[in-house]
Amino acid sequence: MKDMKENNFLAKWLANEISEAELKKHLSEDEVRTYKKIISHSNQLEAPHFNAEEALKKLNLKNSRTKVRKLNFTKFMYRVAAIIVVVFASYYFIGNHTKNYRTSLAQKITFNLPDKSTVNLNADSEVKYKTRNWKKNRNLSLKGEAYFKVAKGSKFTVKTALGNVSVLGTQFNVVARNNYFEVICYEGLVSATYKNNTIKIPAGSSFKVINSETKFEKTITASGPSWIQNNSSFKSMPYWYVVSELERQYNITIEFNNTLSNNLFTGNFTHNNLKNALKAITIPFNLNYTFVTNNKVRLN
């Protein structure tokens, strides 16, 4: 009933029988704004040719043969107008559909974008993009970590809360978590933007930002990130980040002394064996681990 009332008010507005101010008493600002966009798009479409005289002849012929119930023309036009708006609303929203991929803790997924670019999404991460005109506007947003194999084409941009990455066709990894931003280029050339500064990152190089401190390296020899092979590796990384990554991969909580947070860790851990992973991050610091519960671990 509510939808019918809204459609009637909408139809009256389309027929210039009520003002926009009156319409806003029954619809929200966002709804009115959206319908105005739809109408703008619909005005650009060309209607098919309609022969009114021929249609009237056919209608009169039919009426002479069949008794027809009297129709309220005004109500009929309201309904037609409402249906037209609903149709264009469906077209508009479907065309601007946002695709969303999200992983939970201890989960990784791989998927293809409309241009056949491939995305490997690490645990506790999210990618969003609009499907409309994707090949011309290859823009997506990332929270967490993902590895991209980008098909050649127009500029491909990954937007994060910490910085953006742009390429044409290449392979690269992006991490944007908390105060950590990292871009590693494995093939081609990557352009990263951080705080209005643009950094060119060639293959075999990485750009990192940890707690607002930047670091550029040219010592990458791997052909891709280790995490897609179920192994997380680190080079001089703060211990807090290593622990956080292990928590993400195993969906557990780890308690440890905060004095260790900024100690640097170089090494790796597997994603397939929790006890071995815990040994890998505790032995270098002469720590022990204890299972408080099945999903809670304490380091001491």
TrEMBL record:
Keywords for this protein: Membrane, Transmembrane, Transmembrane helix
InterPro entries registered for this protein in UniProt: FecR, FecR_C, Ferrdict_sens_TM
Coiled coil: none
GO molecular function term, any single one: sigma factor antagonist activity
Protein FecR C-terminal domain span: 233-297
Domain called FecR protein: residue spans: 100-190
Annotated TM spans: 76-94
Name of the protein in question: Anti-sigma factor
Database matches in PANTHER family: PERIPLASMIC SIGNAL SENSOR AND SIGMA FACTOR ACTIVATOR FECR-RELATED, PROTEIN FECR
